[in-house]
Each structure stands twice: as C-alpha cells, then as structure tokens.
Amino acid sequence: MRWWVAVAWIEQLLTEAKKSVDEAEVFFVKATSVSAELKQKKVNLATTSEEYGLGIRTIHKGRIGSSSTNDPGQWRECLSAAIASGKLSTAQEWNGLPQPAHLPKSPLSFDASIRIEPNIVIDLIGKMLEGAAEHPAEVTSGSASLSSSTVTLANTEGVRYTDKHTGVSLSLEAIHGQSTGYEFDHSTYMEKVDPVGVGEKATFFAVESDNGKEIATGEYDILLSPLAYGDLLGNVFVPALNGRNVHAGRSRLAQSQGESITDSQISMYDDPLIKKASASMRWDAEGSPTHRIDFIKEGTLKTFAYDLKTAYRFGETSTGSAVRGGFGGLPSIGHHNFIVDGKRGIVDDERVIYIHNVVGAHTANPMSGEFSVELSNAFWMDGGEFDIPLRSAMLSGNVFDMHRNISGLSKESRAIGSMILPSVKINKQHIIGK
Amino acid sequence: MNAMPKIHYFDLRHVTGQVTHIDIDNNVVESAGTSYFNKAVIRVLHKTGWGVLLIDNYKPCHGKKFDALLESASSLSSITQGNVILGEAPNGMLAVPSMKEDPRDVSIEEKSSLLSGIEQAARHPSVVNQRANYIEKIEHVQFSDSSGNEFSYEMCRSGFNVLAVASRNGNVQMGYERKHSIHGFNLRHQQAEGEKAAGIAVTLLDAAIPKGGKMRAVLDPELAGVFAHEAVGHASEGDLIHEGNSVLKGKTGQKIGNDTLTIVDDPGIHEFGFDPVDAEGVAVCRTEIIKKGVINAFLHNRETLSSVGNGIAGHARAMPGEPPLVRMSNTFIENGDAAEHEIFEECKNGIFLKGSRGGQVDPGRGIFQFNAEYGYLIKNGECTKMVRDVSLSGEILTTLHGITLCGNDKTMSPGYCGKGGQSVPVSDGAPHILLIDAVVGGSGVD
C-alpha cells in the first residue's frame, strides 16, 4: 500500500492558499457504509452511503479561518470562504501548524477483512436474532452497519498523512410486557464484536427487568455498568478536562490541578495508540503526533487536554487532543480512547444496586456536576447474581463528588463509544423511590 | 423518470445549502464563516422493504444515469424481508412564511457586531465566562417521486444562544438563553437575553438543591412543552407503535388524562418546527394526539399509517442526506382556562420549575425524565427560595392524570430533537400547568 496517495487537487489547493495566507490545512474524509435495519424480526430497510467531507483551515497573522463542503470539486470556493472567514476572527498567538513527523505507517484501527457488503450485515442481523431467541422477549428494532473511511490530512508545512478506519456496529432493542432491554456493540475489527451476545443481552434485560419492585428513597451502594457510568462521565467529567473549558471558566476542575479529586485508586487517561481500539490515531485532527495523556493519576489531577489553538493562546503545549466532529468539521479538543483504570477486583460480592442504564444523563449540569436520572434495567444484586428488578427510581447526585466515593472497579472493561470503562461501585448514593 | 418495472415506489430528496456560524467566547471571535453542503437520498420500495442510497455531492441526472441509481437501490432492497405497504396520503405544500429581514441581506461583520453586543451584555462581576453563538442554516429542498409529485422550497432558520457561567468558591453555575426563528434575522435589540443569562447564572450561585420526592409542581410553558414532547410525543410516533415499542400501542380511546388536557403536533404552524411539506411529499396537518384526556391519534409517515392506522401521514422528517423518520415538529399542550395565579394558589405548597435542559424517554417502558434549568419552592401559593438542578420523572400512563390545571398563556420555545442519529428543528410549548404527584429528583437534604 502506498502511504501517501498523491491527490493532485489537494497539492493545488495548498499552493493556491499560500498566495493569500501564511498557512493552510486540508482535512479530507471519504467514507462508505452499508447498514440494515430491523422492524421487529424482519429487515425493513437497507442503506448504502458514500460520503465526503472537506474541511479547510487557513491561518494568517494569527487569524484562523475555516470552511467546509462535501463537494471536493468546489475546493476553490471553499478556500475563498475560509480566507474570508479568517478576516472575521480575532487574532491570537500562533506558532505554526505541525511539521511532518516520522510516524509508523500501519493503521491502528483498520480491519482489512471487513467488506462493505449487504450480505455481511444480514449475517450479523441473523446472529443477533439467534441470540435474542434465548429469552422470551419480543424484538422491536435493531440494526447492523459496516463502514470504511480514508482520512487525509495535509498542510503547508509539509504534513501529508493518510489513515484508514473500519467499523462494525450493532444494536438491538427488545420488550417483554412493559419492560425494555437494549444492547449494542461496536468495534473497528469484526472479530471483536459479539452479535449473538448483543441479541441475547437485549432480550435478557427485557425479561429480567419485568415485574420490578419499588424501592424506598434513601442512600444505597450502587454498581454502575460501563454504559451507565459512561453516560454520566461523558456528559460532565470529560468536558471538565478540556483545556478550553478550563481557561474559559467553564470547568469545575479549573483550579484543581495537582489536587486529589477522586478516590486514590482511580486513574483516567487517553491512550490513542491501542491497536484495534475504536478511536486510535497516530496523529490528531490537526496533525500533532498523539501520545498517552494521564489526566488523573491515582486520584490526583495532573493535566488537561489541549489542541494547538488553545495551547498557543494560553502558553500550554498541545496534547495531541484535536478531534473533528463529523465530516469536514473544525478541529476542537476531545479525546481518542478515554480510559478509566485502577485497582480491579470483585465488585458484586456484597448486596448492591446494579444500574445497567440511565435515562436523561445529558440533562446533567456540566458546570456543577449535579444530576438526576431515571434508572433503566436496575436490579438488587446479591453475590454476583441479579436478584430483584427495580421498577422505577431516580438516582440523584454530583458526578464530580461521587468519584470520591468509588469503592471498586470491575475486572472487565468495555468499549462505550471512544471510552473504555469498567463497572464502577460507588457507596452511599441517593436514590429517590416512587 | 421511468421506474424499473419491479419497483413499487421511489423518491428522491435532494438538499443543498449553506450554514453560517459565529462563535464569540469571552470577547474573542473564535470562528465565523460559511460552509456548504449537497446531500441526496434516493429510496426505492419493493414489497419487502426499502433500498436507500445516501449520496453526497449529488448531481441531478435523468435517463440511464438515474435508472442506474434506482437499480442500485433496488438491488439493495432485495435483502429486505418485511411487507411494506404505503398508505394513501394527500400531497401538497404550504407556502413558506416570508422573512421580516433576510439574514443574507446582513453582512457577516454586522452579524458579528450584533452578536458581540449580546455576548457583552452577559458580562457581570461574578460571571467568569460568557459565550454567544449565531447559526444560520439555509436549505434548498427538491423532492420528486415515482407518482409524479414534485416539490421544491427554501427554508432559512437562524438564531442565537448565549451562555453565562458564574463562579464562586468552586460553585459553578450557568444561565443559558436561546432564540431561533423561521421568520428571519433576529439578532437586533437582543442584549436583554445576555443580561438575562448572566442574571440567572449569578442568582443560581445562591440557589439550594431541592430534596427529591413526590410533590406538587407548577411547570412553566417551556418545561411543560418539553413534558408534552417527552412524555407523550415520542410514544405516539407511528414507527415506535408499529415496532411494539410504545406504551400507547393499542390504547386508542383510553382516557389517560383529565378533560383539560389536549396535546397536539402540527408541522404546519409557523414555529421553529415548521415544514411546508413532509419529507415524503405528503401535505402536513395537525394531529391531536391526546384530545380531552383521551388517546386520539398517532403521528405517521405513509408506511406506519398503513401498518398502524389511526392518525395521518405528513409527519415524516429528515436531516439533509438522511432517510425520513416519523418525527414531531411543533408539539404543544393546548390552552386551558386557568389564570396563572389560580395555578399557584391551587398548588399551594410545592415547586415551580422553569426552563429546560432537555429530557429523554423510554417509550416502550413508558418512563420519561426531563430537567428544569431552575425553580422556586412554592409556599402558600407564593414563590420563595430559588432551587437548581432539579428534574422530573414519571410514567406516561399515570402521570398525565396528574395534570389538573392548564393555564391560558401558551407559548412555544424552539429546540432540536434527536432520534435515530438525526437532529431536527422542533418547537415545544404549553401554558403554565399544575402537576400533582410529580416525582422530583434532587440530591438535596433537609
């Protein structure tokens, strides 16, 4: 495979840009996908897509301009729009786009065996339904999709990077009486997804949660599944580690660097270089080489995430944390593979309330960390076994404060989007019964 | 266009347009400019289901080229296994309301200056960050189908958000105001919105966290609108009913609320969720989901109208480049006859909840949750102590009986609603309402 496949119009674009601005950057994505959707147990809709995204950034005397289009044939108009946009933005300290680095060329999250073909998604759907048949719940909907994309980044400093990604994604929903179950799986590698398991768990949770019992309002020890924990963490805690939010006064953690902010067994880090993980990249969305970032080490807050723009403005260094939202989106601060780690052990040996999912985590207050969410597929768990399902209750608390009460992390971790998380046991959390 | 003989139906929805944005954060213009998009969806229906092509950078074509696209979609649909029949629905398009001032007639420099005025208005000694965003999206939509229907229209949606963050001794609170419209440029004379966001953020620094539990609640029109959207709207979507994933399935005619309660979705009114025609070319129309407390009708596209019945099509909506789904548009609780002061007097002791940070529903289980921006404790019919971080949850089939009074001051609020990975503009609204036996979430203690 040739590492840099010369794309003539990108070279032309950069040459043209240099006539008007100090620096320019091109981010180009080309992606194909195929998916199938279930209505109950029958495939009702099959889709293929061919998508393009071109994002251009220009920098001139510290003013950053940008534009995007999904028609690469319109790159001249897009470049003009980016240059015009730069004239509006406020000038800032700017020390240049990244220079080329000698990075390994093998992709980290590309499975060459994945073919973007309808019959493969049909096979995956069949396996999910096979798993779903293990329990007497009705399948309501589901989907399977395969995708492949090529990402190209080039800038006027000589960076020419190309990377390939693949993805497989599965989900299934089921209902039993008035009790619902949902499960999903995703990976960059076909061998890492478990379609039978997705189907089996969706119907398991629907059946097992039926005939839920009430719970009295009070303080309880809880065990959050990676799914429930990830929902709260991603909506509140992760944005507070974003350097831009920190310097803008939008992070509760802004003044806490060097302080103990979680239980001492907890570490949180971003590892962009894990082979086969969902969000692995050797370079970030603006071409800075990526590396592991230790945000929290054994409870102590060590650092925040930065892209070039925020780093230059506040005298920091980019942590290689630039990501792009969607096709042709502007770079902003995010993470690659966000991992919560620490001493692992048995977390379900004592009686505890297991919470598989929550409803409404996005309504949490991202500044203060306060939240109240409805529980979904929650159970009294005893000796590692699901005991009594809970019908309906709310969990209220503070995402930041509850990290001080973590009493255990499960042995196993699970990928939830671009986070890799264990189940987390937290003591004395407030549950409101009905 | 000539359809393949084996194709039952096809349609093409091609959307081109541009998005202009301005982001001002703590007096710095972070970014400003315009981006462009061109996206098309071709759907082909066989008896067993749909084959759909999502095409970026679509160049309109006819004859053999278009037939080849239909053939690709058709061959894709051969893997489907269902039995899809389209219900009959009237076609037609409403006029798009004219704009008082077209945003395209205002230079981006002037937009930036006006937005900066709103952002600066949010400055306050206790505010550590103020941020304002402007967004303007222009979409040219072209629709055609195998029955010979053709529609084209242009929609412009524009508006702004302003955020103020106040901080004191590690206590960080926010105030957030937003105004979005289909009626044209709305950045002029809006500094008061910045001041309001700052005022709320600063006041919240001294607000208490309520103790959760069951109590009486008064909901303001914005939050009551979100209640209608989350607690009723989603569960009435025809696709969820068809899948068996809604507690409202099979409940038509059942009384689930008081006579005062009527909940409507209407894509045809000139609010932020307005569509002149739906994404399948069907004429849009008002649907009374709950009528005087009784489950009356569901929201449908042509497919779910046929498979579920009871309701009308015209509720298919789509993001550019995405296949249409059954969606809400402008969803509201109709006015009742109670005056606002009567609602507070009737509440007597409870909580007044204002504004919305969004919500979520599990329609199959019939459980919903949504969050207020802030509120006040009500003592003897009067608002007293301010509270923050308060949410509500409940069960669809029982909670609606708890709406005992509806005011006469309905107002609509713009927003966006997510479903199936697609986000579409909507508005929600209601008058002030009284909800007894509300389950309020809060981590406060006595």
Describe the structure.
The complex is a heterodimer of chains A (434) and B (446). Chain A has 434 residues and is of the alpha+beta class. Chain A folds into 2 domains: 8-205, PmbA/TldD fold (2-Layer Sandwich); 211-434, no CATH class. Chain A is 19% helix and 40% strand. Chain A is built from 8 helices and 19 strands. Chain A has helices at 8-18, 75-88, 118-132, 195-208, 226-237, 243-248, 308-314, 399-402, and strands at 23-39, 42-60, 63-69, 138-155, 160-176, 179-187, 218-224, 266-270, 293-297, 300-301, 322-324, 331-333, 338-342, 352-359, 370-382, 385-390, 394-398, 406-416, 419-432. In chain A, the strands form 3 sheets. Chain A has a 6-stranded antiparallel sheet with strand order 3-2-1-4-5-6. Chain A has a 5-stranded mixed barrel with strand order 7-14-15-17-19. Chain A has a two-stranded antiparallel sheet with strand order 11-12. In chain A, a hairpin with a 6-residue loop joins strand 11 and strand 12 (331-333). The longest helix of chain A is centred in the N-terminal third of the chain and has 15 residues, at 118-132. The mean pLDDT of chain A is 95. By secondary structure, chain B is α+β, with helices and mostly antiparallel strands. Chain B has 2 domains: 9-204, PmbA/TldD fold (2-Layer Sandwich); 211-443, no CATH class. In chain B, 18% of the residues lie in helices and 43% in strands. Chain B contains 8 helices and 23 strands. Chain B has helices spanning 63-77, 108-121, 191-204, 221-233, 238-243, 302-308, 340-347, 396-399; strands spanning 9-25, 28-46, 49-56, 127-145, 150-168, 171-181, 211-219, 263-265, 287-291, 294-295, 298-299, 311-312, 316-317, 325-326, 330-333, 350-354, 359-362, 367-379, 382-395, 403-406, 411-419, 422-430, 433-443. Chain B has a 6-stranded antiparallel sheet. A 6-stranded mixed sheet of chain B has the order 10-9-8-15-22-21, with helices on one face. In chain B, strands 7-16-18-19-23 form a 5-stranded mixed β-barrel. In chain B, helix 2 (108-121) runs parallel beside helix 3 (191-204). Chain B is globular. Mean pLDDT of chain B is 95; it is low at 1-5. The chains are: A alpha+beta (434), B alpha+beta (446). At the A-B interface, strand 2, strand 3, helix 2, helix 3 and strand 4 of A face strand 2, strand 3, helix 1, helix 2 and strand 4 of B. Strand 2 (42-60) of chain A pairs parallel with strand 3 (49-56) of chain B.
